[in-house]
Fold this sequence. Notes:
By secondary structure, the protein is α/β, with parallel strands linked by helices. It is built from 21 helices and 7 strands.
Amino acid sequence: MTVWxxxxxxxxxxxxxxxxxxxxxxxxxxxxDRKPYHPQKLGLVFAAMRHARDALREAGYDVTYRRARTFxxxxxxxxxxxxxxxxxxxxxxxxGAAERLRSLVESRGGSLTLVDDDRFRCSxxxxxxxxxxxxxxxEDFYRWMRRREGVLMDGDxxxxxxxxxxxxxxxxxxxxxxxxxxxxxxPDELTRETLDWVAERFDTWGESTGFAWPVTRAEALxxxxxxxxxxxxxxxxxxxAMVGGESALAHSxxxxxxxLGLLGPREVIDAAVDAWERDAAPxxxxxxxxxxxxxxxxxxxxVYRRTMPDLVESDLLSRSRDLPPLYEGEGTEMxxxxxxxxxxxDRGYAHHIERLMVLSNFASLYGAxxxxxNEWFHFGxxxxxxxxxxxxxxxxxxxxxxxxxxxxxxxxxxYVDRMSDHCAACAYDVDATTGDDAxxxxxxxxxxxxxxxxxxxGTGRMGLMYSHLDRKDDAELSAIRERAATIRNxxxxxxx
Length: 496
Ligand code: FAD
């Protein structure tokens, strides 16, 4: 029997390694040729795999590390050396992956034993036994998970008497706020060698220099400690804020480590709860963070699992425009959008509100094909994997499906103005809807509501938005439509 570890299953204490005789890691290049992945994403995955190989060997495992074009090529070599071998694998969360891998193994005369994926706290069986309705409601799932895991609970009730502290999590920092420090993990020789090889071997999109992501378990643990010590407290109040020149604010930057398996979700949650118990972080920050990891991260995985393959092809609003060239990093005068895209280009990262209320909001209002946006997120972000990117982009980001959101997360420039300092320094006027210097978000927003009225007016929570639209007379609406058309043309031509 050989344990087969995929490149995002790197936790050295994973249960899949229990009593392992041998370990197999396959570094395949064909998948990376399919999209223009961010060089830091490819560098991160390959460097983390190579470091995991070395760490497992040091821990005494017999590790075979195969470099090949495809999994099939590497498995040919494996079964030539070990005919009829049984491979033990953690069930991968991406749709159809387990079946594809099983068929690769069985067609070479081997067998595949699948075990639970311990990068998540809630197994498919547990979720399916709990979930008996039609739609998916995050809040119900989150409360169930808090009780099930006994996290921030006082008997059957939430500690402090509140399940969430949303209203305290929407502040913007004062002008004299200094963002907490962000850790940098300088590449060692092996990582540098890997990054150089990626830069030479693959067609990529994004900045290859300045790599500072954790690539080992030890670095990921340092990143967790650093977050808990320096950024967890301000994380709560400022989690929805945006500040010019700041890509991280107080966000944890832990998604790449969690999704690679360098960190487990429970240890991350326990570290945050421990800070609250030590009075080192307030409840609204700790609960806010727990909600993201124990709630949203797990929830998205199951929504994805239960709604694929339809999910990836869905678009409730039938949008089909190509993503405008500013998403390639060509620049725009819109400060919020320019910053968010440059954060992705520079590091393969943007925080949640930039992803949702800037990058997805603009693409949605513009009418870009959500599937193309999903691809863009997929190749551009260091933490992107099909199971997590797809429900976030198609459900939360673009309302291509209503399986777990009752209304689109769209807004005019007003939201960006309220939650950031971008608008004061922007070339566009956030208070204007029409006219040459009017903030593009404004006309696009009203035009979007007008355009999708048939689908959206009746949906639960859109009444207020439509009551504002109803107050606009024909002349105003026609000026809005004209301005929206101009913005789309200019965006398409790279002149926004
Ligand atoms: P923090 O803000 O510090 O949050 C803590 C942790 O909570 C994250 O590390 C992550 O593990 C988890 N988390 C929070 N929100 C979500 C969520 N909605 N779904 C899943 N996990 C969540 N997350 C990814 O891991 N990969 C993606 O490819 C991805 N694509 C996204 C695309 C869009 C359009 C949107 C709106 C969100 C996306 N997210 C994705 C979710 C979330 O934005 C990122 O997990 C988060 O920004 C990562 O940064 P962080 O580690 O600093 O997170």
